[in-house]
Amino acid sequence: MTIAVTGSTGQLGRLVIEKLKARVPAGEIIALARDPAKAADLVRVADYAKPETLATALAGVDTLLLISSDAVGQRVAQHAAVIDAAKAAGVKRIAYTSILRGDASPLVLADEHKATEALIKASGLTYALLRNGWYTENYTGSLAGAVAAGAMIGASGEGKISAAPREDYAEAAAVVISTPDTESRVYELAGDTAFTRAELAAEVSRQTGKTIPYNDLPEAEYARILESFGLPAPFAAVLAQSDIGAAQGGLFDDSRTLSGLIGRPTTPLATAVAAALAG
């Protein structure tokens, strides 16, 4: 079985390749990337935005993991090109990194994922929809700045967030795509233990020995602050709206499907925070 992974040099993709190498022979893995210079081996050139690269890249592939594009606003067209190329190349099964409860999520970010899921279902290919919850790194990546500022901010209120590190999601993806399956399936993937932003701030306070409060803000104010940090206005607005979606329960899941796939509990928040503060 030949397995290909798009976006293989990205933050999630490189972890999936690493996990796959522990499960299947390297000769069965094809890493697809826009810039092959960024990857050491197993690479074929595949650019979502250049459909002419996709046919050759997908030749001989049995199972494809389509990691969602980071080009918000252009994802559907780019994903459609990959799905069409996969079908034309004779790919038998496609897995896609979607968003938690992609068909019913209150997050605006879910719209392109929902459209992509529809394209995959219409393709006739066997599929695995990996509906990933939030990455813990979405929060731990900015901890240094929050500690320096003496506070954490957001707009998620008391919303519970079932996050897990990228490595946990990558391991689940590797398990799914390396296990032969002729049935189409949907996986709602999230961390075992949910937390609010206030609880995250409390954990950071505990580990740093400093009082780091969480300040909950109105959506528009949070978006303006994110924009003042240098984020483009449209992206700042999407992030702020994602917090509102979290407040509405859009990032909560207690099915433990993720830990079931990887055969262990998902990485605890305290462990992720400690790693971020140490790094």
From TrEMBL:
Transmembrane segments: none
Pfam families for this protein: NmrA (PF05368)
Source domain of life: Bacteria
Protein name: SDR family oxidoreductase
Gene3D superfamilies, alphabetized: NAD(P)-binding Rossmann-like Domain, UDP-galactose 4-epimerase, domain 1
Gene source species: Caulobacter segnis
Domain NmrA-like: 2-241
InterPro entries attached to this UniProt entry: NAD(P)-bd_dom_sf, NmrA-like, NmrA-type_oxidoreductase
